[in-house]
TrEMBL record:
Keywords, alphabetical: Kinase, Phosphoprotein, Transferase, Two-component regulatory system
Domain Histidine kinase positions: 16-230
Record GO biological process: cellular response to phosphate starvation
Catalytic activity: ATP + protein L-histidine = ADP + protein N-phospho-L-histidine
Organism the protein comes from: Thiogranum longum
EC number: 2.7.13.3
InterPro entries reported in the protein's UniProt record: BphY/WalK/GraS-like (IPR050351), HATPase_C_sf (IPR036890), HATPase_dom (IPR003594), His_kinase_dom (IPR005467), Sig_transdc_His_kin-like_C (IPR004358)
Name of this protein: histidine kinase
Keyword Kinase recorded: yes
Keyword Transferase: yes
Source species, domain of life: Bacteria
Cellular component terms per the entry's GO annotation: plasma membrane
């Protein structure tokens, strides 16, 4: 873990530390799931607190995975595995991964996607991104989240929309825009949007590449995230 001068390579040290933290968070989440499975709403007064801990744990785990993935991409250690996939399978996997946690907060999640809708993309990267967006919507949705897929101008689109208050102006993003800068006032690092932009840009076909948008045309004016894949 050192460079040609014999000095420690801080990037590798940091990546290894993040990997260890991710594993520890995974163990904590597994323990929380085990404890939660023994609790019923009537017998466990701390069930709501467990729900909040699971949400924060999943969010932290997702952030750590994003950091590791971005590191591997930046170091040219990740090659996208572009294969043909069913959009409905990806969305259903994301739904199943999140619906239990959403239900504890009283949030319904719905899916709208034709079974024969397919596209070429890295399944692991895209499903991880969409699941992360759903996990983020958990914090802002009032009672509903809607996920779906379709076709638009030759792109496969995957979207997540909720019935919350929508994105603040600083988080609105259109095609061709750069990712938001770090905001010390709001506490936003921009990691999620930077990750989304990076994953989208890895998907190319002919002279087109993927991109994403955010807007406030979700459920009743709530937020909407849309990923476009060529």
């Amino acid at each position: 873990m050192s460079d040609d001068t014999g000095k420690p390579d801080f990037n590798i040290i940091l990546a290894n530390a993040v990997h260890d933290m991710k594993n520890s968070v995974g163990m904590l989440l597994a323990a929380l799931d085990e404890i939660d499975s023994r609790c019923s709403p009537d017998s466990c007064a701390s069930r709501d607190q467990f729900s909040q801990l699971r949400y924060e744990g999943k969010r932290l785990s997702s952030n750590l995975v994003q950091v590791l993935t971005l590191y591997r991409i930046n170091e040219s250690r990740y090659t996208p595995n572009i294969t043909e996939n069913d959009a409905s399978d990806v969305l259903e996997e994301c739904l199943l991964d999140n619906e239990g946690l959403l239900a504890l907060k009283g949030i319904d999640i719905e899916m709208d996607c034709n079974d024969d809708l397919q596209g070429f993309f890295d399944n692991e990267l895209v499903s991880g991104l969409i699941s992360s967006v759903i996990n983020n919507a958990y914090k802002y949705a009032r009672s509903r989240i809607h996920i779906g897929a379709g076709r638009e101008n030759g792109y496969l689109t995957l979207y997540v929309k909720d019935d919350g208050n929508g994105f603040p102006p600083s988080m609105l993003h259109e095609q061709g825009q750069g990712t938001p800068a770090i905001s010390f006032r709001s506490g936003s690092t921009g990691l999620g949007l930077y990750f989304a932009a990076t994953i989208a840009a890895l998907h190319r076909h002919d002279d087109r590449q993927g991109f994403f948008t955010t807007g406030n045309d979700g459920i009743n004016g709530g937020g909407r995230f849309t990923l476009y894949l060529p």
